[in-house]
């Protein structure tokens, strides 16, 4: 503004001073004070009050007192002067400056020595008392009591800034109940305050009372209560609000529209979110971000990316929350090229130090197999919170760096960040993937020390830890002794371990438990059928598959994909539909000959069909991950890294073959399956053949 030779208006200096106060930038604030004097507005009411507040909060009380003494105009913020009463000459902001108990209490006491009623009409004084923390509990309570006794019902008292702690909101509620005339604005304030305080049922009760008082909710009321229905996943109540909005013409409002989109998306009704979004006549960044976030939250990642591109085409500029919403889609789809483009855009926009965006970037790079890049971003962050720590710990866990994950977990605690449930899940995953049974158990038992109660996912992680280590009986006992009812997912974890360790007898027992816990899940049928096939029990496998068909169950197809030149190419086992089919299969034939020369022997037990060995070998060579790797070989320069993603667990034979391929071609091959990353290099895998 100054470089454009624009003179600041009367509201500019107070705003800038408040910003300095919030950021605790005393030196900058003093420079602004100099500009205030230069422009001759030091005696302007709001500017003087803002400067006093800044100096007081930044503990330069002498400056604050000097400014107060220099203000020629009496006002309710700086003073409640009356007939030379010295007690009333003390400004409400001054007591906030003292940091010591004695000084603060001494500064406050004279104000109340006569009577707290002198503060009743001074809202700013009330703010100061509410913010005080040392030795003034009785004064705070007296102030609230005086305000309530005075039946002060001005709505400015009921503003959102009063609803900043539970005690403050209690006071607001009491005053609201005493108000003889309650308008829509006051109802909205209390309803919104209940929502902000997590009192969702109370908010709904207030909405009903408002209707009984013959007051019609407005757009602010609706936007306040919609998150309640989202939290309770009560789409029927949300639809009632939606109907009310349509009848009263609020549905075209962008703010209401965005709230409806969020509500439907949270209730997993993405199609309804689309309809609301499509009917909005004007779409701003809030509505775009709401629909994109809804898609990503519900697993429709491709649609989220499509809408993000559409938003850019509509000339709607992404804001910080836009990137926090879309980066998880890149992470899930492992679209590294697009993720890098977004990262470059983020840097150009100056958003790279935003904590939430930086954490999303850490997660995205880690899930695309670029753990070193993820670590570089993490190390450059100025501040780390539990989200960023958890993202980097989980990233190392999934990429096979268990020792580094444990070091980071300890560093997080040294940084005085309390581990939460997600952080514990990350470190347990690291221990599970590395076979660190004792370490994992120690972490699990330490959760109570931080007040974290294990949930289903933590129990599943321990079951997985024991199962991967081959301690199947111990894992079974752990699950049956759990204080919570085992889910189908936990039994599936143990069933997978039974398959890896070829324990068919226990697998049959676990499959029954899994079917009982989750009758509609086809997982136990598929896994047990595969185990029967691997053991040569073809009749048992055929019987299970027949039962699956009778129940209308179909095994999910295995598929893999690879991103080449900003385009994703997908493959299923035995795929012949790709435009480069001939070149892909030629590359596979060449690879097979070279693999045999290096000593590779196919693990034909992984071919789950009752056919001869040659046919089994051919089936293995056309698994989806091998097709994706072959396409990567013919489509990228020699020596470059090949990264693919598979929706299911990579089979033992493919794992062995890819180790050979990485050695023969001198390439690093990164395979992300449904549980972890495998970094193949020079004939070895980062998982240590433990997955």
TrEMBL record:
InterPro entries: DYW_dom, E2_motif, E_motif, PPR_At4g14850-like_plant, PPR_rpt, TPR-like_helical_dom_sf. Keywords: Repeat. Residues 75-98 are annotated as: Disordered. SUPFAM superfamilies: TPR-like. It comes from the Eukaryota. One of its GO terms (molecular function) is RNA binding. Residues 599-691 form the DYW domain. Belongs to the PPR family. PCMP-H subfamily. This is DYW domain-containing protein.
């Amino acid at each position: 503004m100054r470089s454009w030779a624009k003179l600041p208006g009367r509201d500019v200096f107070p705003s800038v001073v408040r910003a300095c106060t919030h950021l605790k930038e005393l030196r900058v604030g003093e420079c602004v004070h100099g500009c205030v004097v230069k422009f001759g507005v030091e005696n302007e009411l709001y500017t003087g009050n803002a400067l006093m507040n800044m100096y007081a909060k930044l503990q330069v009380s002498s400056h604050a007192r000097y400014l107060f003494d220099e203000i020629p105009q009496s006002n309710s913020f700086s003073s409640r002067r009356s007939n030379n009463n010295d007690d009333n000459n003390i400004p409400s902001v001054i007591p906030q400056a003292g940091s010591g108990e004695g000084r603060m209490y001494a500064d406050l006491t004279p104000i109340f020595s006569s009577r707290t009623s002198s503060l009743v009409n001074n809202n700013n004084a009330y703010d100061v008392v509410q913010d005080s923390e040392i030795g003034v509990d009785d004064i705070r309570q007296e102030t609230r009591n005086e305000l309530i006794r005075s039946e002060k019902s001005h709505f400015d008292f009921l503003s959102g800034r009063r609803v900043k702690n539970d005690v403050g909101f209690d006071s607001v509620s009491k005053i609201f109940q005493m108000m003889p005339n309650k308008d829509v604005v006051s109802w909205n304030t209390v309803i919104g305050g209940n929502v902000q305080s997590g009192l969702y049922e109370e908010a709904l009760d207030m909405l009903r009372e408002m209707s009984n008082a013959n007051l019609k909710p407005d757009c602010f009321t609706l936007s306040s209560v919609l998150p309640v229905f989202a939290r309770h996943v009560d789409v029927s109540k949300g639809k009632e609000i939606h109907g009310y909005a349509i009848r009263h013409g609020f549905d075209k409002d962008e703010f209401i529209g965005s709230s409806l989109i969020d509500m439907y998306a949270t209730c997993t009704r993405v199609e309804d979110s689309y309809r609301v979004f499509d009917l909005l006549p004007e779409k701003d960044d809030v509505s775009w971000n709401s629909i994109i976030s809804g898609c990503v939250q519900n697993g429709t990642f491709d649609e989220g990316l499509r809408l993000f591109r559409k938003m850019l085409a509509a000339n709607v500029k992404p804001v910080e929350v836009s990137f926090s919403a879309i980066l998880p889609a890149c992470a899930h789809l492992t679209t590294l090229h697009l993720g890098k483009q977004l990262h470059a855009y983020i840097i150009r926009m100056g958003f790279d130090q935003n904590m939430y965006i930086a954490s999303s970037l850490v997660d995205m790079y880690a899930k695309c197999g670029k753990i070193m890049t993820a670590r570089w971003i993490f190390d450059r962050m100025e501040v780390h919170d539990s989200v960023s720590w958890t993202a980097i710990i989980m990233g190392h866990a999934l990429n096979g760096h268990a020792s580094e994950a444990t070091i980071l977990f300890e560093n997080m605690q040294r940084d005085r960040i309390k581990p939460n449930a997600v952080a514990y899940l990350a470190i347990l995953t690291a221990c599970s993937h590395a076979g660190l049974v004792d370490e994992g158990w120690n972490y699990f038992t330490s959760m109570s020390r931080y007040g974290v109660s294990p949930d289903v996912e933590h129990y599943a992680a321990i079951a997985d830890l024991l199962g991967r280590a081959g301690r199947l009986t111990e894992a079974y006992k752990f699950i049956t002794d759990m204080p919570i009812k085992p889910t189908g997912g936990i039994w599936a974890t143990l069933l997978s371990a039974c398959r890896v360790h070829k324990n068919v007898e226990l697998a049959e027992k676990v499959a029954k438990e899994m079917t009982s816990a989750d009758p509609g899940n086809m997982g136990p049928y598929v896994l047990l059928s595969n185990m029967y096939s691997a053991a040569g029990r073809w009749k048992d496998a055929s019987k299970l598959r027949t039962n699956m068909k009778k129940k209308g169950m179909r095994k999910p197809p295995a598929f893999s994909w690879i991103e080449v030149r900003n385009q994703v190419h997908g493959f299923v086992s035995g795929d012949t539909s790709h435009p480069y089919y001939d070149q892909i299969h030629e590359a596979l034939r060449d690879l097979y000959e070279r693999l045999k020369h290096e000593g590779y022997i196919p693990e034909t037990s992984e071919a789950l069909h009752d056919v001869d060995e040659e046919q089994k070998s051919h089936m293995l060579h056309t698994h989806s991950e091998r097709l994706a790797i072959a396409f990567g070989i013919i489509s990228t320069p020699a020596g470059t890294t090949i990264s693919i993603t598979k929706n299911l667990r990579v089979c033992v034979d493919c794992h062995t073959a890819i180790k050979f391929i990485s050695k023969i071609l001198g390439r690093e091959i990164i395979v992300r399956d449904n549980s972890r990353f495998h970094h193949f290099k020079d004939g070895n895998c980062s998982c240590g053949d433990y997955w």
